[in-house]
Write a structure and sequence with these properties.
Helix content: under 10%
Distance between the termini: 24 Å
Strand content: over 45%
Number of strands: 11
Number of helices: 0
Amino acid sequence: DYRPDYVPPPPAPPPPPPVGPLRPVRNGVSNGFDSPNLEFFGWSYPESGSRWSLGTSSRIYFELGEEMNEDLVLEFVCGAHGWQPIELSFNGVYIDHLFPEGFESQKHYLSIPSNITKVGLNSIGIHAPGAAIAGGGDPRVLAVKFESLRLQR
């Protein structure tokens, strides 16, 4: 889908060293906002049922334990701080835009080409230029309310 007004996001920061060894994400298994299989960079601490991305760019890291010879479907369950376009990338390659309709979480399904996956550490990048101050005395700049992800062959 060509968009003449599209401006790519700034380069993402390098991945942080994992806090501990991550277990590989398993095919078809949901990994929630507090999963030990996921490492979060640029996210708040877990809250009740979710966690918020902080600022306009954040990442989720995870391990794949085997080579993917077929495309994957990413189920990404999220909401947003207000209506805003959210760009997702996989290992630095643009995948698609999401348009969450507000705080209520929705399931989004995205196709991940097998040629951009790798055995070992992988990442999902989130770019949300509409991130805004939470308000109500909360000074955080929030964008995406993440609940879970699942990869399916």
